[in-house]
Amino acid sequence: MSSAPLAPGATIGILGGGQLGRMLSVAASRLGLKTHIFEPGAHPPAGQVADRVTTADYDDEDALRAFATSVDVITYEFENIPTAALDLLESLRPVRPNREALHFSQDRLVEKTFLEGLGLQVAPFAEVNGASDLAAAMESTGTPAILKTRRLGYDGKGQARIGAAGDARAALDAMNSAPSILEGFVDFTFEVSVIAARGLDGEVVCFDPGQNVHKDGILATTTVPAALSAPQHRQAIEAARKILGALDYVGVMGIEFFVKQDGLIVNEIAPRVHNSGHWTQNGCVIDQFEQHIRAVAGWPLGDGSRHSDVVMENLIGEDMARLPALAADPANALHLYGKADVKPGRKMGHVNRITGPAKG
Amino acid sequence: MSSAPLAPGATIGILGGGQLGRMLSVAASRLGLKTHIFEPGAHPPAGQVADRVTTADYDDEDALRAFATSVDVITYEFENIPTAALDLLESLRPVRPNREALHFSQDRLVEKTFLEGLGLQVAPFAEVNGASDLAAAMESTGTPAILKTRRLGYDGKGQARIGAAGDARAALDAMNSAPSILEGFVDFTFEVSVIAARGLDGEVVCFDPGQNVHKDGILATTTVPAALSAPQHRQAIEAARKILGALDYVGVMGIEFFVKQDGLIVNEIAPRVHNSGHWTQNGCVIDQFEQHIRAVAGWPLGDGSRHSDVVMENLIGEDMARLPALAADPANALHLYGKADVKPGRKMGHVNRITGPAKG
């Protein structure tokens, strides 16, 4: 079980049944592997393409136990897995990526401290547990700054901007007394992310960096190639290798960087396949989803090189009204998530627009 | 229902749960469509990635009726669907490709007559219903020739080679009294196939021809680009357009040609996605499976152009022992079918070997 590659016919358990779990299931099927989805919500998008689905809460120990013993290895599509559930699952089957990666990515303060410890540049930050901390923190990071809860932040939720001292009270209230972190602003030119994979044997394969544009705190587009200089490109890849190696990581990780004239700042790491890596589905022969499945299944990683240039655009809520036009454009490859209801702000799918053969 | 494109969330019913149904299901998921598989055999490969599976025989009218009414449109992965089942299904939901296509491809004699009627070149052929017919047929086609049952031929089964008059008796016995057709040999240089798609609106998109090599009557490899001259390439595409148009066809069709110095001979048509089109999964942005789903769902067809050159190799039976080496080679993209048992002659998967950016 431990380090031999999973044979075709084996089953990968996936915690979370959203679009990432769905695309992981599809990738697993290409390698002859089955998937079993664990998801509290009914009718998860991933369930439409998975061999099995368990609908249960993360505190349902019987369900967790039955799930774990029905699979050969466990992975996940989101990082906020309750600790007790993880404890139980880990006692029954290998969980990849490992606990270490979750530990660092579940807490912004721990994450930043870890990254700084690796000699990587991060935004100025300070711990905040109340009004008195905040004044000192603002002095240390400068303003404007963003106050964020240490845990469970996702797509701009649990965040408040502090432009000047007068914003402090409202920002603290928005945190609802949760342990928080104040992050100083970084004056950056643009943001890129690297989707990196590390195999069970320690091999690391990185996809080319993508350039991200956010709108209302949600990723809007990722463009490859990114407008990085060769040294910047190298620096991003080297940082990714350092992070994955330090965590003895197995699987795909998304790493966001702010690009400044004089270097790269690591913004955030996500121990899973990442929205900014969706372009790989149509830009590479082996995409981030298959790369992740290969890693957690103990297979050799695939080739990560890019054959086409791509602009990935998220389809959010009302964007679905554009579907007829998007489907009719021959430059587009569509990827829809099988979600029943269109809601404002909800990620419904994405489109990979092919802009030409790979260059740059 | 009839001609409006299916909206995301709709369900495509697929007759047959093998590897073709499996890869069709995966393609449907990209477009936000669900699939429901109808298959007599238990645990079909397609069931691992489909939203629903019905396990029932083609003479189970209740099961057919429940299946049809649960889906929005019906397609199939194989052409030998029993007539009574088709009658019932057609009365409840659109079946695409249509009956016409099945009619022609289910019977080799009818197929050849149809193709000849379109002005396309086919191998010399003659109807054979017994020993007396056979002598006349051999005179008309010349020897060597191949005696084939008119119906249900697949991967070299139900065929017998007649080198000289002395082989006639054994060949007839091999047909087991089934209505047959004698096909004269064609002295060809190589075989190619065109994977062509036609949308509900009549638009036709063809993938580049692939060059096929068979072994023991089973497809072994398909290579793109094929070694066709520009006029031969044009002739193949024009023949494909003519065939699909004449049938008012909706979906993907595989068309095999023998290539001779002085022209192309149409060997066979298959009204479905085709093994010789598997290279499109890694050579094109939109593959044959998505193209078929787009067509039967009434969507506009996708771009069929090739970004990479590919050699597709089938993995048959014992080839699965080569899996570790195949998985470790970065030029390879693997596609395994999730079949539980490795059997000699059984198609277990295929590998698309990327040989470079598209040229030729």
Automatic annotation (TrEMBL), chains A, B:
Protein's UniProt name: N5-carboxyaminoimidazole ribonucleotide synthase
Ranges where the ATP-grasp domain occurs: 112-297
Alphabetical UniProt keywords: ATP-binding, Ligase, Nucleotide-binding, Purine biosynthesis
UniProt-listed Enzyme Commission number(s): 6.3.4.18
Pathway: Purine metabolism; IMP biosynthesis via de novo pathway; 5-amino-1-(5-phospho-D-ribosyl)imidazole-4-carboxylate from 5-amino-1-(5-phospho-D-ribosyl)imidazole (N5-CAIR route): step 1/2
HAMAP family in UniProt: PurK (MF_01928)
Function, in words: Catalyzes the ATP-dependent conversion of 5-aminoimidazole ribonucleotide (AIR) and HCO(3)- to N5-carboxyaminoimidazole ribonucleotide (N5-CAIR).
NCBIfam families for this protein: PRK06019.1-1, PRK06019.1-2, PRK06019.1-5, purK
